[in-house]
Design a protein that fits this description.
Strand content: 25-35%
Largest sheet: 4 strands, antiparallel
Oligomer: single chain
Radius of gyration: 14 Å
Number of strands: 4
Length: about 90
């Protein structure tokens, strides 16, 4: 059995799929999530690849004691009714 290996996210790689738009705010507000909550949890807009094309996505940082542990991207577009998630 192989031991799992964990490494912290590379901020340079993260910057490649984060977009500097606020398109995520409108989507999250339509879901009942306020801009204050979005700001508190540092959710930003980005892109995720579904195997065919880039999709708009939410970029969610996972932190512990202020240290970045993981970044998850969840598509806001739903091709064929399925969401695309990348960790």
């Amino acid at each position: 059995k192989r031991e799992k290996k964990f490494s912290r996210p590379d901020r340079k790689k993260i910057a490649r799929y984060v977009t500097r738009t606020e398109s995520h705010l409108e989507y999250l507000q339509s879901r009942g999530i306020s801009p204050e909550v979005v700001k508190r949890y540092e959710v930003v807009s980005g892109k995720v690849w579904n195997g065919e094309r880039e999709l708009d996505a939410l970029v969610l940082p996972y932190k512990r004691d202020g240290e970045l542990l993981q970044v998850k991207r969840i598509s806001t577009e739903r091709p064929d009714g399925k969401k695309v998630i990348m960790a």
